[in-house]
Design brief:
elongated; 24 strands; 14 helices; alpha+beta; Ubiquitin-like (UB roll); Rossmann fold; 550 residues; 3 domains; Alpha-Beta Plaits
Length: 550
C-alpha cells in the first residue's frame, strides 16, 4: 500500500483517500469543522489547512514544499508526501481561522447545550490565541424555529454548511439554504417550508457548535453528567445502532452510533424520540392478581410471590397452553419464556405477537432506508421459537386458533409495545371462552388488563440487555442502559423467577451472555455466540446483581 507521512508518522492509505481521512484513520488529529465522512467536501472552514511537501519527479523525486497551505479535507493523499499540521505556517493559519470564527460568536458557553461537546470550545483551547483582539460590537442574529425538533441559534453558527448539505444529499428534501453574504451570512429555511423530514434531527448531531439544538433536550441536562450506553433501536426493524444517554436512571436523549453496515451515521426521528414510553407515568410497576387487593409499593416482594404462585398454579392446571411472544422482546426473553411454558405443556402452542406496520419502506437519496415494520425482533423471536416448535403461528393464525376453541384454556401473553397494542380481534377471540385464564406480562396499561387473571410488569428494551435480529437478519447484542423503573423486571428474569418458584430452588439472576451460551449449547443456536455483533466498550450502568451460572 502507498504511504504518506503526517506529523512524522508514516501512514498507509487506500488510493483516493484525502489527507484528512488518512489522518483520522491513524488517530492523528487535524482540526476540522465542515468535513463529515457522510457528506460532500466543500473545504470552506479552512482550519484543516496544512503544509505539504511532495516528491518532484522532475528533480529526482526530491521533496519540495507546495507553495500554499492545502486543505487536507480536499487534497488527495499522494505517495511519499510529507504533511505538517504543526508547522509554524499551519499553526498560524489555525489561530487566524479560530480568531475569525470567534469574532461574532457570542460567549454563550455557560448556557449553551453544546457546552462540553463543542468543537469550537475544544479548538479555541487547542488552536486559538487565548486572547481576543476584537473590540467592535458583535453582530447579533435571531433565534429561529426551523421545524418540530430543531432550533437555530444563528449567531453561534460558523457556516460549516453541514446541515445544508445533509438536507440536499442525504434526505434530498433541501429545506435549508445559505442566505446573505459576508458577516451577515446565515442558515435559513425556504419560506413556508419547515425542516420536517423523517431524518431532520440528524442535523443536530452533525452541527459542530451550538447553532442547531434539540428542542426536546434543550436545557435538560449538562452533557458531562450523561452516561452513554451502546444499544440497538428498540422500536423498528432496522436495528439502528444508537447511544442511550442517561443520568440517575432517567433517559435524556438518544443519538446515532456509527455502524457502516447498518445505519451509517444516521437514525430516524421516530427512533430518536420514541423512547418516552420508558418513563410513562402510567407504566405498570407492580404485579396484580385478580380477586386480590392491590399491593402497596413496599409490598412488592409479596406481590411477586403471589403473582408467581398464581401463574404456576394456572399453568400446572392447564390442559393446553398458548404462548404469544411479542416481537418487541429480545431473543433471550423469548427463549426463557418458551422454555418455561414447555415445562408445563410439551405441546404448547407458540406464536408471535402482532407486528405493527406503518406506511411503506422509504429509501432516501443518500441511501438510508426507513422501514415500515415497527418491531425490533420479529425475526429473532421466530428464530428462537422455531427451535421449540415446527409450527410457530403468526398473529392472525393465533387469533384463528383462539376463535376455533381448539383446547386452549390458558394463555401467556406478552406485550411491551410503546402504546396500546391490543386489537379488537384479540378481545373478541378471548370472549369466545370466558373461562380461559390469561397471564399478561406487559409494560403499559391496555384493554387486556381487565381480562387477565395475573398481570406482571415487564421491562422495556432500555432496561435490559439482550439480542435483536433486524430486517436484514443481523443479530446485534445491546447493553442495559438503566435499571428497570420501580419494581419492574425483564421478561427473561420473570421466566427464571417463575421456574425457581415452581421448583422451590433459589432464583437465577439473568445474564444475557450466559443465556446466549445456553441457547447455543442446548438448542444448537450457535449464532447466538458466534454471529452476534457485540457493542463496543462504553460507560454503562454497573449491575448490582451477581451473574449465576445456569
Amino acid at each position: 500500500m502507498p504511504t504518506i507521512t503526517i506529523n512524522d508518522k508514516v501512514c498507509q492509505y487506500e488510493p483516493g483517500q484525502v489527507i484528512l481521512q488518512v489522518a483520522l484513520d491513524h488517530e492523528i488529529e487535524i482540526p476540522h469543522y465542515c468535513y463529515h465522512p457522510g457528506l460532500s467536501i466543500v473545504a470552506n472552514c479552512r482550519i484543516c489547512l496544512a503544509e505539504v511537501w511532495a516528491p518532484n519527479p522532475r528533480n529526482d523525486n526530491k521533496l519540495e514544499p507546495i507553495p500554499k497551505l492545502l486543505p487536507t479535507c480536499q487534497s488527495t493523499a499522494g505517495e511519499g508526501q510529507v504533511v505538517y499540521t504543526d508547522s509554524p505556517k499551519a499553526i498560524a493559519n489555525q489561530k487566524a481561522v479560530m480568531e475569525y470564527l470567534l469574532i461574532n460568536h457570542p460567549v454563550d458557553c455557560p448556557v449553551c447545550d453544546q457546552a462540553g461537546e463543542c468543537y469550537l470550545q475544544d479548538y479555541a483551547y487547542q488552536y486559538g490565541r487565548g486572547v481576543s483582539r476584537f473590540q467592535e460590537p458583535k453582530i447579533k442574529q435571531l433565534k429561529k424555529d426551523l421545524g418540530p425538533h430543531v432550533l437555530l441559534y444563528a449567531d453561534r453558527c460558523i457556516m460549516c454548511t453541514r446541515c445544508v448539505r445533509f438536507a440536499q444529499e442525504v434526505t434530498g428534501t433541501s429545506e435549508l439554504l445559505v442566505q446573505g453574504r459576508g458577516a451577515t451570512e446565515q442558515i435559513d429555511v425556504f419560506p413556508g417550508i419547515a425542516l420536517d423530514n423523517e431524518l431532520s434531527a440528524n442535523v443536530i448531531d452533525i452541527c459542530p457548535v451550538g447553532a442547531l439544538l434539540d428542542k426536546d433536550f434543550l436545557f435538560q441536562q449538562r452533557v458531562w453528567y450523561l452516561k452513554s450506553t451502546p444499544s440497538i433501536d428498540g422500536l423498528t426493524c432496522s436495528g439502528d445502532n444508537i447511544w442511550i444517554e442517561h443520568n440517575q436512571g432517567k433517559i435524556y436523549r438518544l443519538r446515532p452510533r456509527t455502524n457502516m453496515d447498518v445505519n451509517t451515521w444516521w437514525i430516524t426521528d421516530e427512533v430518536r424520540y420514541g423512547w418516552k414510553f420508558v418513563h410513562d407515568e402510567n407504566r405498570l410497576t407492580l404485579p396484580a392478581v385478580r380477586g386480590e387487593d392491590p399491593y402497596e409499593q413496599i409490598e412488592a416482594p409479596l406481590a411477586y410471590e403471589s403473582a408467581y404462585a398464581k401463574t404456576n398454579e394456572l399453568l400446572d392446571a392447564a390442559k393446553h397452553i398458548a404462548v404469544m411472544i411479542s416481537p418487541m422482546l429480545t431473543c433471550e426473553d423469548a427463549y426463557l419464556l418458551a422454555r418455561y411454558a414447555l415445562e408445563h405443556d410439551a405441546e404448547v402452542t407458540l406464536s408471535i405477537g402482532p407486528v405493527p406496520r406503518h406506511g411503506k419502506d422509504k429509501t432516501f437519496p443518500g441511501g438510508f432506508t426507513m422501514y415500515a415494520e415497527k418491531a425490533p425482533n420479529a425475526r429473532g423471536v421466530r428464530r428462537v421459537l422455531e427451535k421449540f416448535s415446527a409450527n410457530v403461528l403468526d398473529y392472525e393464525a393465533f387469533l384463528g386458533r383462539l376463535r376455533s376453541n381448539k383446547g386452549i384454556d390458558t394463555l401467556l401473553i406478552t406485550g411491551n409495545y410503546d402504546s396500546d397494542w391490543v386489537t379488537e380481534d384479540l378481545i373478541k377471540a378471548l370472549e369466545n371462552r370466558t373461562d380461559r385464564a390469561v397471564i399478561l406480562i406487559d409494560t403499559l396499561p391496555t384493554a387486556l388488563i381487565d381480562r387477565a387473571a395475573v398481570v406482571i410488569p415487564g421491562a422495556t428494551w432500555a432496561e435490559k440487555a439482550g439480542t435483536f435480529e433486524n430486517v436484514n437478519n443481523r443479530l446485534q447484542a445491546f447493553d442495559r442502559a438503566i435499571k428497570p423503573i420501580d419494581y419492574c423486571k425483564s421478561e427473561a428474569q420473570i421466566a427464571l423467577d417463575l421456574e425457581a418458584d415452581r421448583t422451590g430452588e433459589e432464583p437465577v439472576v439473568y445474564g444475557a451472555e450466559q443465556i446466549r451460551r445456553t441457547m447455543a449449547d442446548v438448542h444448537a443456536l450457535g449464532e447466538f455466540v458466534n454471529d452476534v455483533h457485540l457493542p463496543p466498550e462504553a460507560q454503562t450502568v454497573e449491575s448490582d446483581m451477581e451473574i449465576v451460572e445456569l
